[in-house]
């Protein structure tokens, strides 16, 4: 039996949502380099309904999302308790996602409301852990403006909103990645939306998936704070057989198209927030890894610096990834539900044979 470890290169299903064919990322046929300039709400609409909205539909859809960025009172009460616990924020989010599926007539919750609640819950977790008061949604602001406002307590500039909107779009979907495939497996059992999302959050938490952005910033922070030589640090880590987070991708051998866009945003924000030292370290590392190992930065590499420049703590980086990827998770859950086929692959048994139990 031919076995592909990790399902590498195995096509398990078809999708109309996104594609990485020929190492070129597209959303419903639109190149990521172009669609990254759209608004966040446009891309959400595109991934869910397979077409871009006209201005009237966009306005209505944006208001629908914003109006639903409110959490049930019982969810807030429990969040005020569990979010202060010492566990990793992704563990808090895992529990919160499951909790959202137990309140306020959730049987009738649809993707717009679910996405809005997830964004607000993530912002609330960050505020509670920072001992800051929760921020109410402002109906006059867009989804991204509200998300930033509810996290930082400051109304973002149009420039920051535009940049962060691009960041969220670039993370919105990525074909059958580990967390998305996990969501689809659960969806194939006809389980509810929140169960699918809870499973996806669990998958995203791992350092080989969404958690990589935290490890990237830990590396940058160590090099900067201890005034280490970036190249010598990398050489030492590799000599110890340790993985360098933020480099390489199973699909993009010639460079992650998302990283090219994020690099420009990271550079701009680094200058504006006086974090050039981190960006310079990143460039030294990137130059060495490309020259020595032909490895390019991936989506996690520059995202780590962007989140730091916005004022986020590294422990919350993967939650922000989850906020963005919830868009894609919901799109794939909807698509899988339409297929109504249980995902149940086979395996090749390679254990002991011909054993017998004597009575």
From TrEMBL:
Q: Name one GO molecular function term.
A: citrate synthase activity
One GO term of the cellular component aspect?
cytosol
Name the pathway it acts in: Carbohydrate metabolism; tricarboxylic acid cycle
Active site (UniProt): 249, 300
Keywords, sorted A to Z: Transferase
What catalytic activity is recorded? oxaloacetate + acetyl-CoA + H2O = citrate + CoA + H(+)
Asked if Transferase is a keyword of the record, the answer is yes
Residue ranges crossing the lipid bilayer per the database entry: none
Gene3D superfamilies recorded = Citrate Synthase, domain 1, Cytochrome P450-Terp, domain 2
Please name the Pfam families in this protein's record.
Citrate_synt (PF00285)
A GO BP entry is: tricarboxylic acid cycle
- Which family does the entry's similarity section mention? Belongs to the citrate synthase family.
The UniProt entry, under PANTHER family, shows:
CITRATE SYNTHASE, CITRATE SYNTHASE, PEROXISOMAL
Q: What is this protein called?
A: Citrate synthase
User: Species lineage, top-down?
Assistant: Bacteria, Bacillati, Bacillota, Bacilli, Lactobacillales
């Amino acid at each position: 039996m031919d076995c592909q470890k990790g399902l590498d290169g195995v096509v398990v299903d078809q999708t109309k949502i996104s594609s990485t064919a020929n190492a070129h990322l597209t959303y419903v046929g639109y190149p990521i380099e172009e669609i990254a300039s759209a608004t966040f709400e446009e891309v959400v609409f595109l991934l869910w309904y397979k077409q871009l909205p006209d201005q009237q539909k966009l306005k209505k859809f944006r208001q629908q999302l914003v109006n639903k960025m409110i959490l049930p009172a019982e969810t807030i009460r429990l969040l005020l308790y569990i979010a202060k616990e010492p566990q990793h924020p992704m563990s808090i989010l895992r529990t919160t996602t499951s909790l959202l599926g137990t309140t306020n007539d959730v049987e009738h919750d649809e993707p717009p409301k679910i996405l809005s609640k997830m964004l607000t819950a993530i912002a609330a977790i960050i505020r509670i852990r920072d001992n800051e008061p929760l921020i109410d949604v402002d109906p006059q602001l867009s989804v991204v403006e509200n998300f930033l406002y509810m996290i930082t307590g400051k109304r973002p500039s149009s420039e920051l909103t535009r940049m962060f909107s691009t960041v969220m779009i670039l993370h919105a979907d990525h074909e059958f990645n580990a967390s998305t495939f996990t969501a689809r497996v659960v969806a194939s059992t006809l389980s509810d939306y929140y169960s699918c999302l809870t499973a996806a959050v669990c998958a995203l938490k791992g350092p080989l998936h969404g958690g990589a952005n935290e490890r990237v910033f830990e590396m940058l922070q160590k090099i900067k704070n201890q005034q280490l030589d970036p190249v010598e640090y990398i050489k030492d880590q590799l000599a110890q057989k340790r993985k360098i987070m933020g480099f390489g991708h199973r699909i993009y051998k010639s460079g992650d198209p998302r990283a090219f866009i994020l690099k420009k945003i990271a550079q701009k924000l680094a200058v504006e927030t006086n974090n050039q030292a981190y960006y310079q370290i990143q460039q030294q590392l990137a130059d060495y890894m490309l020259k020595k190992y032909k490895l390019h930065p991936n989506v996690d590499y520059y995202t780590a610096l962007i989140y730091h420049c916005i004022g986020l703590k590294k422990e919350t980086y993967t939650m922000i990834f989850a906020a963005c990827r919830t868009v894609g998770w919901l799109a794939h859950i909807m698509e899988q539900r339409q297929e109504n086929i249980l995902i149940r692959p086979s395996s090749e048994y390679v254990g002991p044979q011909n054993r017998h139990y004597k009575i």
